[in-house]
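Q: What structure does this chain adopt?
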Amino acid sequence: MKEYEKMLKGEDYFPMTEYLIGLRDRTRALISDFNQEKDESKRSEILKSVLGKMGSGCYITPNIFFDYGCNTELGDNVYFNANCVILDCAKVTVGSDTFVGPNVQLYTPIHPLDYKTRNTFVESAKPITIGKNCWLGGSVIVLPGVTIGDGCVIGAGAVVTKDIPDNSLAVGNPAKVIKTIEQ
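A:
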C-alpha cells in the first residue's frame, strides 16, 4: 500500500510491488471482459466496478485500456470512442459532457530521463484533468500534469504538454491555442 500512496501523491514509487501488480492484473482482467462483452448494460456494470467514479449516461466504446481504473473519474455523459488508453497512475478526471475521440491517450506516469534510474523501474505520476464540455479529437495525447479547461476543443493528433485555458481551440505538436471559442 505504501507505494500506491506514494504514487497518488506524485512521489517516486516502485510499480513492481505485489499490491500494484495485483491491482493492474485485476483491472486488465475486467477490462478484457468489458472489451469482449456484447451486452451494453453488462459492459456498464463492469466499468462501474473498475472506475473510481462513473457518472450517469457515460458510454465507452470498446476497446479501452486502463492501468488501474480506480484512479479515473468520469462526470455525467462522458463519451470515449474506440481504442483509448488511460494510464492512470495518478488521478484522471474527465468532466461532464466531454467527448473523447478514438485512439486518445492520457498518460500520467513520468519516467526518469537518465537510464540508470529508469532501469530501476522507479517512476512518478502527475494527474490529468479535463474540464466539462470538451472534445478531444482522434489520436490526441495528453501528458502528465496537464489541465484542459472547460469548453475546450483539442484538434486531432495534438500532443498536449501544457495546460489549456477554458474555451480554447488547441492544435498541433506541441498543442498550441489558436483560438478562443465563443460560447
